[in-house]
Design a protein that fits this description.
The complex is a heterodimer.
Chain A lengths: L1 E14 L5 E9 L2 E7 L1 H4 L3 E8 L7 H10 L4 E8 L12 E2 L9 E7 L4 E3 L1 H5 L38 E3 L3 E13 L4 E5 L9 E6 L2
Antiparallel strand pairs in A: 1-2, 1-12, 2-11, 3-4, 3-6, 4-5, 7-10, 7-12, 8-9, 10-11
Chain B lengths: L4 H8 L14 E10 L2 E15 L6 E8 L2 E8 L5 E8 L27
Antiparallel strand pairs in B: 1-2, 1-5, 2-3, 3-4
Chain lengths: 209, 117
């Protein structure tokens, strides 16, 4: 596995080699720096911690300032751990990783925080079709969830029952997005399809193969 | 919404092709390649330009022709690699940038005067 942290720039469409117009997302990924190495002996698991996106030192609290100083890097905005780095991709402390860990044509997984939709009803949140019709004296129930289950047995609502609630703004992972282009000089990756979040939101890019 | 600079950068990498300039009302022939199985051949589409829409690499133009009494419209992206050639057959004299009124006209009324410039 190898991975990077990045930022969603925006979507566009380009033409592939067969002349097809494909929707794609532009991601600015890296350069990331290794700020910590977790080992099985000390932490119970193997992982590396990557940090991305420079930030003003005043915006970082003192413990984190020390954390970055230890790695000898300027303060960064976000950090994430990447587990199961393969032998060839294992990185050392303080090393800089950029987009050249990926190659064009590979499939990567991209995860991030999806756009928040607020508190939504079941029709929008779970694709319910609403209850009944609008006529025959029926009112107020067009977008209602309907029955939640049987009555005296089980006398309770089963866990996981789909109801209204917060929609979006949770971690979403898009798997197997093909890399269409890589521009190392601008740290850009173009992947086929969409990725979670608004433009400018942070993403975690992983390649497992 | 404005496009982020880096998205514009990606779009600018697709080399813009040079086509002769035309506008709504002109009669043009578009030669484009189509794929049948693993063969590619060129087909042409001749008609009147209804509109030119968009900007950058999403700019498109619409061509309308009458094929056996049925109006046929095709939308081509300027950036499409499948367009091989565009030939201007006639310059039309129209007052509008988008001549959708042509869809409601038939026969002689659907004729567009040739511009004299």
């Amino acid at each position: 596995m190898s991975g990077l942290l990045g930022k969603k720039i925006g979507m566009t469409s380009i033409y592939d080699e067969t002349g097809k117009n494909v929707a794609c997302t532009v991601i600015q990924a890296g350069p990331c720096v290794v700020t910590q190495i977790r080992t099985k002996d000390r932490d119970g698991y193997d992982a590396i911690q990557l940090a991305y996106d420079d930030v003003d030192e005043r915006k970082i609290n003192k413990p984190l300032r020390g954390h970055f100083a230890k790695a000898g890097v300027s303060p960064k905005r976000i950090m994430a751990e990447f587990t199961r780095f393969e032998e060839g991709h294992r990185k050392s402390f303080g090393e800089v990783i950029s987009v050249d860990v990926f190659t064009v044509g590979e499939f990567i997984d991209v995860s991030g925080l999806s756009k928040g939709k607020g508190f939504q009803g079941v029709v929008r949140r779970h694709k319910f079709s609403g209850v009944g019709g609008a006529t025959h004296g029926q009112h107020n129930r067009l977008r209602a969830p309907g029955s939640l289950g049987a009555s005296s047995y089980p006398s309770r609502v089963f866990p996981g029952m789909r109801m209204a609630g917060q929609m979006g703004q949770k971690k979403v992972k898009m798997i197997n997005l093909r890399i269409l282009h890589i521009f190392p000089e601008k740290n850009l990756i173009v992947v086929k399809g969409s990725v979670p979040g608004a433009n400018g939101s942070y993403l975690k890019l992983e390649r497992w193969s | 919404m404005n496009k982020p600079e880096l998205v514009k950068y990606i779009e600018s990498l697709e080399a813009p092709k040079q086509f002769p300039e035309f506008k709504a009302g002109d009669t043009i022939t578009v030669d484009y390649s189509i794929k049948e199985g693993n063969k590619t051949r060129t087909q042409s589409f001749t008609g009147i330009v209804l509109q030119i829409k968009g900007a950058g690499n999403t700019k498109t133009f619409t061509v309308r022709k009458i094929s056996g009494n049925i109006g046929v419209e095709r939308i081509f992206p300027f950036a499409s690699p499948n367009i091989e050639r565009i030939e201007i057959n006639k310059r039309g004299a129209v007052r509008r940038a988008r001549i959708f009124y042509l869809r409601n006209l038939r026969g002689k009324k659907a004729k567009i005067k040739e511009s004299r410039s």
